[in-house]
Amino acid sequence: MEVLVVASKVKKFIREKSEMNCSASVMEALTKIVERECLKAIEHAKMDKRKTVMDRDFI
User: Fold this and answer.
1) Residue 24 confidence (pLDDT)
2) Could you give the number of structural domains in the chain?
3) Residue 47 covered by a domain
4) Which domain holds residue 38?
5) Is residue 8 one of the residues assigned to a domain?
6) If exposure means fewest CB atoms within 10 Å of the residue's CB, which of 8, 13, 30, 48 is most exposed?
7) CA–CA distances in Å: residue 38 to residues 15, 26, 52, 55
8) Are 42 and 34 contacting, i.e. CB atoms less than 8 angstroms apart?
9) What is the 3-state secondary structure (H, E, C) of 5-58?
10) What's the pTM?
């Protein structure tokens, strides 16, 4: 599985917001979420007969 999130940025965000550490398995979980949401957005765009995924496809 290719990781689709920038680990250093996620870890930094979590650290700044909570002073907590972030386990390596978080990146895999977030990648699965990103993949799932991207697939939904792709289907949304297809239903609208577009070849471009737009921000509104994620809502």
Assistant:
1) 86
2) 1
3) yes
4) 23-59
5) no
6) 8
7) 26, 18, 12, 11
8) no
9) CCHHHHHHHHHHHHCCCCCCHHHHHHHHHHHHHHHHHHHHHHHCCCCCCCHHHH
10) 0.85
